[in-house]
Amino acid sequence: MSFFSDLGGGRFAATQHTAGPWDPAFMHAGPPAALLGRALARTAPRSGAFMARITFEILGPVPVGEVAVDARVVRPGRSVELLEGTLSAGGRAAMLARAWRVTAAPRSAGEAPPPPPLPDSPGAAPPALEGFGYGDAVELRFAAGAWDEFGPATVWTRLRVPLLEGEEPSGMERVLAVADSGNGVSAVLPLDRWLYINTELTVHFRRAPRGEWICLDARTAIDEGGAGLATSVLSDADGPVASGAQSLLVAPRA
C-alpha cells in the first residue's frame, strides 16, 4: 500500500492512509504536501540546483479521493527561480504551493548538534488518535515529550508506506510528509475539545535529508486575541535539514 496510486496524466487516487485526525473523510496535509513537493521537484529539474523553500497554502479540507497535481516555473533564472504548483480535488484548487529553487551552496559553514538518539520503540497513541489512516501509516517514537503531555516535543518519524506504490520517497518527500505534524505532536490544548488546524505550511530546507528516519522537534504557542504558531526543526541522523512553521486556526470544537 501507499499514500497515493498514480492514475496517469497528473491524477492520483488517495488511499485511506492519507486520512487525517480531524475527519476521516479528509486528508492529513502531509501526504498531499509531499505529492505537490514531488511535482515541484520534477518540474524543469537542473543539476546543481536546490529547493530552498516551499510554502503550501491550504485552501480547505482535501477529501480522500482523486486529486490532480500540476506544477510550473513562473520566474525562470540561472541562479534563482520561482516555481508554483496546484493540487486540485473535485474540480477546485485545494492546496497551492510556491517554491524557491537556488544554485546549491559551494561549501558548508557552521555546525549544529545532532538530534537525540532514536528511541528503541514507539509509544502508544491516545484513544483520540487511534485508527486513523495517516496515524497508522507513520511510525512515531518520542525522544522528548509524549502524546499525553502538553508542550514541546521531539519525535522521530518513519513512513511505513511510500508516497507512491513502487517508488522510494525522496528525502524532501519524507520531510514534507511529516512537517505538517508539528502542531499535533507539540499540542498545548486537548484534541477532543479544541481545533488547532493550520492554514499553511512553510518549510525552509538547509540540505537534502538522508535516510528513512526524520526527527521533528516542535513547539506550539497560542496567544489570546491572536493566532497559533507551531514551529519545528527537522533533522536526519546527522543533524538539522529543515525548519518548518504553521499558522494555526484555534477554535473550540462544536
Written overview of the protein:
It is a single chain. This protein is mainly beta and 254 residues long. It has a single domain (4-104, 117-252), classed as Acyl-CoA thioesterase, double hotdog domain (Porin), CATH 2.40.160. The protein contains 4 helices and 13 strands. It has helices spanning 30-41, 133-137, 171-179, 182-185, and strands at residues 4-8, 11-14, 49-58, 66-75, 80-89, 92-103, 138-144, 153-159, 194-198, 200-205, 213-222, 228-236, 239-252. Strands 1, 2, 3, 4, 5, 6, 7, 8, 9, 10, 11, 12 and 13 form a 13-stranded antiparallel sheet that branches. Strand 7 (138-144) and strand 8 form a beta hairpin. Helix 1 packs antiparallel against helix 3 (171-179). The longest helix has 12 residues, at 30-41. The radius of gyration is 17 Å and the shape is globular.
Shape: globular
Please tell me how large the radius of gyration is: 17 Å
Helix content estimate: 10-25%
Total of helices? 4
The CATH architecture category equals Beta Barrel
Number of domains: 1
Distance between termini? Answer: 34 Å
Classification by helices and strands: mainly beta
CATH superfamily: Acyl-CoA thioesterase, double hotdog domain
Beta-strand portion reads 35-45%
Q: Stretches where pLDDT falls below 50 for ≥5 residues? A: none
DSSP summary, beta strand count: 13
Average pLDDT, all residues: 94
